[in-house]
Every structure is written in C-alpha cells, then in structure tokens.
C-alpha cells in the first residue's frame, strides 16, 4: 500500500509544478513618481477614492498606472506588481491621466515630504500573467 501512496504524492507534485509553470513573469522599465491622499494631487473633494472606487488608506502598498500599461497583457485593476528596490508587492488600484505613458505613481499616504523625496525615478516593475 505504501507504494501506491508514493505514486499519488509524485503525481500531486508534478501537477503543482505544471500549474506553477503556466504563469509568466513580465518585466518593464517605467518612470515612477509618488502621490498622496491630498486634494491638490487627486480628484477634488475626494482625495481617498481611487479610479475604480477603492478607498486608499495610509500604509497601503498601492500604485496608479498610466493607461497605456493597462493595455499590456496582464496589468489590470488588482494586479500585484513588484517594484525592484522596494519591499513587498504593490496592488494596482488607481489609473493616471491619459497624458502619461510608461509611468506609475506610488501611493505614499498623506506624507507629502516622503513623496517629494522620492521624486522621479526609473524603476523596473514585474507582474505575473496567467
């Protein structure tokens, strides 16, 4: 009976490996700036509601993306994005004005000084596509 059990384990492991190989990681260099939940930087009268209706809160790891990136396969509302040099994953919760191209905006809560300190940088972003 032990022999059959081992076979099931091997089949299970092979299935997991196969499914894991079905996802592709895409990478792209973009310009990254930062933004805050302050009325001067966002929609007038509602500085915490993102483009798809998500409520932003200080401490969230969220980004806004330029609309041309939404046309890239796999980047959409809710996509998890890794930004090289920054810890953790950032969720796509907002979109930028259509005038921007190949750009992300990193959400930095209400800390305007931190956003100004970040400035404008070239970064590499990565995301998984099923």
From TrEMBL:
Keyword line: Signal
Record bears the keyword Signal: yes
Organism: Cyclobacterium jeungdonense
Name by which UniProt lists this protein: 3D domain-containing protein
Source taxon at top rank: Bacteria
Stretch forming the signal peptide: 1-25
